[in-house]
Automatic annotation (TrEMBL):
Membrane listed as a keyword: yes
Similarity field: Belongs to the NrfD family.
Membrane topology: Multi-pass membrane protein
Keywords: Cell membrane, Membrane, Transmembrane, Transmembrane helix
Transmembrane segment boundaries: 27-46, 66-85, 97-118, 147-166, 178-201, 221-242, 254-274, 300-320, 329-355, 375-396
Stated name of the protein: Polysulfide reductase NrfD
PANTHER family attached to this UniProt entry: POLYSULPHIDE REDUCTASE NRFD (PTHR43044:SF2), PTHR43044
Natural source organism: Flavivirga spongiicola
Highest rank taxon of the organism: Bacteria
Gene: nrfD
Subcellular location: Cell membrane
């Protein structure tokens, strides 16, 4: 009963914290709410008229929704790059950022699940994915594995920070014997969610563009570049607008992680390009469409070459120590790298897998306004959730939120 009382107090204090703030904070939350409402309106149209309002067809059945899902799985997995040094290697420099990283993982996973629901057409079909009720088809279906690893990782990233913050809210020290096993498990689980997602594509034999042994490792490399890049940007915002000060050396260490991952990702990209174009076969047509166009169809051409250009520029800049340690340059490069990998892992991976079709027909895909509206709404939802989690966590970390003490804003 006492724990329930403390939990009730935590919820009450959290609600009080997230509903109070500066003018900029309220404007930010109002903007996110507006974008979510626009997304909900677009989604209501999709529910009413079906997936015909999207740009997806029977030729290209995965589009903007699954592209964002694939990218966000990587963002969620990136939290492990903070969890492992903090909880496993005992690196205190990462300790300030680890709860923020795990909050970002929770927001990313919620967005992942939302994009899956949007791509399925509506929430009414979710019962198919429930074991014992729907046709779960475990362990034969890779989709069921994906459902398990994503929800399992979401549980780990909610339960571990919650335990730590719940103890600190009471003014107590978290017991490492309770959360360290979960943290260790989350390290392996983070790798698992990305590998299983990669295997999901690799297992589709009719899509040769995805039948690549490097797909899984490259998923991890790009995830550990884009995810920590986003974490750096988030930490920069937090230390600018809140009293929660992140030390420079923490950001510099995360920047080193981004640099190494970006370099590995670029090496793997070069390896893939060599494999596709040095001795091309008819299975290389999807890659030719993506990088050079086929039969005059070039919808993805500007996207992929922009992505590669940004990727190369960002990686080269990060490689130089002096440039990387200049925070103005670092923040710009993180934006550049994040956008580059979003394009590459989104449109650059998903759409070309369907083009050309099994009979050689080229049917290009262009997202509709409805899809874009729903997508922006889901991204706003993720930002909204993360803002709430971060504001509560920062309040507890700074000692402003304590059990039986009035919250001070």
């Amino acid at each position: 009963m006492k724990r329930l009382k403390v939990f009730g107090s935590l919820v009450k204090d959290s609600l009080d914290t997230i509903t109070h703030g500066s003018k900029k904070y309220h404007l930010w939350m109002a903007l996110l709410t507006f974008v979510m409402l626009v997304g909900m309106y677009c989604y209501s149209i999709q529910l009413e008229q079906g997936l015909s309002v999207t740009g997806m067809t029977d030729r290209v059945s995965w589009g903007l929704y699954i592209s964002n899902f694939t990218f966000l799985v990587g963002v969620a997995a990136a939290a492990v790059m903070l969890v492992m040094p903090t909880y496993v290697l005992k690196d205190i420099d990462f300790k300030q950022a680890v709860l923020i990283g795990e909050g970002l993982a929770v927001a990313a996973l919620i967005m992942c699940l939302a994009f899956v629901i949007a791509d399925m057409g509506g929430p009414s079909v979710l019962w198919h994915m429930i074991p014992g009720i729907g046709v779960f088809n475990f362990p034969n279906s890779m989709l069921t594995w994906d459902v398990l690893v994503l929800n399992g990782y979401l549980f780990l990233n909610i339960s571990i920070p919650f335990y730590i913050l719940f103890r600190r809210y009471q003014g107590k020290t978290p017991n490492p014997k309770v959360y360290i096993p979960g943290a260790l498990l989350s390290v392996f689980w983070a790798v698992g969610i990305h590998l299983v997602t990669a295997f999901l594509y690799q297992g589709l034999q009719a899509r040769p563009f995805w039948n690549n042994a490097l797909l899984g490792p490259r998923f991890l490399a790009s995830a550990f570049a884009a995810g920590p890049a986003l974490i750096i940007l988030v930490l920069a915002i937090i230390r600018t607008f809140t009293a929660f000060k992140i030390e420079d050396k923490t950001i510099k260490k995360i920047a080193m992680v981004v640099t190494v991952a970006a370099q590995i990702n670029l090496i793997m990209l070069i390896s893939e390009l060599f494999k596709e174009f040095y001795a091309p076969t008819h299975h290389s047509e999807s890659a030719y469409y993506l990088f050079f166009g086929l039969e005059g169809k070039t919808a993805l051409l500007p996207w992929i070459w922009t992505s590669i250009s940004m990727n190369v520029v960002a990686t080269v800049i990060l490689t130089f120590h002096k440039l990387r340690n200049n925070f103005k340059i670092l923040f710009f490069v993180c934006i550049l790298l994040f956008a580059a990998i979003w394009i590459e892992k989104g449109f650059g991976l998903i759409v070309p897998g369907f083009i050309p079709g099994p009979y050689g027909k080229i049917a290009e895909y262009t997202p509709t306004g409805i899809e874009i509206g729903v997508t922006l709404g889901i991204w706003a939802l993720g930002a909204f959730v993360f803002t709430i989690l971060a504001k509560t966590a920062i309040g507890i970390e700074l000692g402003k939120l304590r059990y039986k003490k009035k919250n001070v804003n």
